[in-house]
């Protein structure tokens, strides 16, 4: 451990990426995290965000959740939490950036994840799947930006078709400054497609559960 990281965040690695420009790995207070464009992509804070979300939506340890789809794996912190929360669940994660996964495997806990299948692909260009999931996590970011295709009604309807009868989709959106307006616009689209839409705010993120 870098002793200076006990006082200030220390940059310990940089990855050049086709999709995220620079992926930076930091160490602070004995913990490592991944940052892109000044936004933390993976690390303990991300796990805390998603842990609070699962608790607020009453999704923790639900026995019916056996198959999970994660759109936007990043460095794998969300998968680490899902492994702990749903130890028997099979997880499929789609990630466009192999450098992000490489950083997660080397510096975080991604290499230790169980029951995980990783697909390197652009989620918007994949062939349509007929597999059904009990929980779909949508965590798609490039820095602070969310892909515009995510708001396309046809893609949202496709995501809806991937859920089981009890299943739901959880979208993660930033919720500060200009992102508040964008998140509210996205929420309005979801309310026109899904029967049940709930929200919960955790720090500067808005989580939207759609069923």
From TrEMBL:
It comes from the Bacteria. Transmembrane segments: none annotated. Gene3D superfamilies: Vaccinia Virus protein VP39 (3.40.50.150). Keywords: Methyltransferase, Polyamine biosynthesis, Transferase. GO terms for biological process: methylation; polyamine biosynthetic process. One of its GO terms (molecular function) is methyltransferase activity. Signal peptide: none annotated. SUPFAM superfamilies: S-adenosyl-L-methionine-dependent methyltransferases. InterPro entries: SAM-dependent_MTases_sf. This is Methyltransferase domain protein. It comes from Candidatus Gottesmanbacteria bacterium GW2011_GWB1_43_11. The lineage of its organism: Bacteria, Candidatus Gottesmaniibacteriota.
């Amino acid at each position: 451990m870098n002793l200076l990281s006990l006082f200030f965040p220390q940059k310990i690695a940089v990855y050049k990426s086709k999709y995220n420009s620079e992926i930076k790995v930091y160490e602070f207070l004995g913990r490592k995290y991944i940052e892109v464009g000044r936004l933390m992509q993976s690390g303990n804070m991300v796990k805390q965000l998603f842990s609070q979300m699962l608790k607020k939506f009453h999704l923790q340890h639900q026995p019916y959740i056996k198959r999970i789809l994660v759109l936007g794996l990043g460095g794998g912190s969300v998968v680490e939490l899902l492994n702990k929360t749903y130890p028997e669940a099979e997880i499929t994660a789609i990630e466009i950036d192999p450098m992000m996964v490489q950083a997660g495997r080397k510096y975080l806990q991604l290499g230790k994840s169980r029951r995980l299948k990783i697909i390197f692909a652009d989620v918007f260009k994949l062939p349509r799947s007929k597999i059904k999931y009990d929980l779909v996590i949508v965590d798609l970011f490039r820095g602070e930006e969310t892909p515009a295709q995510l708001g396309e009604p046809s893609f949202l309807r496709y995501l809806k078709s991937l859920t089981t009868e009890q299943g739901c989709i959880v979208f993660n959106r930033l919720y500060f400054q200009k992102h508040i307006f964008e998140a509210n616009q996205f929420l309005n689209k979801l309310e026109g497609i899904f029967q049940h839409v709930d929200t919960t705010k955790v720090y500067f993120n808005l989580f939207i559960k759609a069923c």
